[in-house]
Amino acid sequence: MDDLEVLATGPLTTMQDQGRPGFAALGVGRSGAADRHSHSLANRLLGNSERSAALEVTLGGLSLRARGEVWLAVTGADVDVLVDNGSGRHPIGMNAPFRVLAGDVVTLGMARSGLRAYVAARGGFDVPETLGSRSTDTLSGLGPQSLTVGDVLGLGPRPGDLPDIDVAAVAMPTADEVELRILRGPRDDWVVDADALAQTRWQASHRSDRVGMRLSGNTSGLSHRESGRQLPSEGIVRGAIQVPPSGEPVIFLADHPVTGGYPVVAVVIDEDVDLAAQIRPGQHIHLRWTR
Q1: Which three-class secondary structure state does DSSP give residue 222?
Q2: Can you give the pTM of this predicted structure?
Q3: CA–CA dist 187, 148 (Å, integer)
Q4: Cα dist. 279→42, 159, 238 in Å?
Q5: Per the structure, how many domains does the chain have?
Q6: Residues 133-169: pLDDT tens digits?
Q7: What are the phi and psi torsion angles at 44 (to 5°)?
Q8: N or C: which end of the chain has fewer CB within 10 A?
């Protein structure tokens, strides 16, 4: 059998594809890879469909033992990829396909920059679908459980020939301040000064996960104009910036709820949401208005 046995999971490793769109009216969010670009790249490097399931590894620490010949690719956060074939650990480059044989152990070190790495296997991971997706939704509990030690991960049928590429020229996520472009509204008039979003040097809070990233900083301009005013629940999209009464903005990510009762004063443009998914707790963030 060409499959992989889980020896260590790191802080959190989940199964992710491109999500389950089209069910928001039923109260089911899309979920899927937090960094969609890195997820798609890992699959493309192996000739998989971009919708194939891959592993999303938070901070690193994953270890897998091959139980047959398996082709893999690792993208996303800047981690060391080490292969132990019985004669010691050997480094393997990121953003490139590589082969392991039965008994080889692949280990991801802890991320130097970025938050989430993606491990794709040729053929994709063959796990049951829920509502047409193999994604783990940490908010609703839909999809496969997070990986645990001892899990055996089967693979799907291999596609055609491997792509003719040695390595993808992709920049690693930065450990410096990240700029995210934002659009105004739809509820920017609910706070005293929505421009405070772009005038504050924010920091990603440790109270962040796949659901959303909470920002800490000077919240004085983001207090609600009318503290007793109630907003009926309304739809929320990935990248929405919601401001609760505390004034601490929350940027919603992959596992965001489908509705919310606090005002959404801005939205991160879709192109920059993948950047947000790689921001680590403690990292600084600048929000910039764009048209």
Answers
A1: helix
A2: 0.96
A3: 41
A4: 19, 33, 15
A5: 2
A6: 999 999 999 999 999 999 999 999 999 888 888 889 8
A7: -65, -35
A8: C
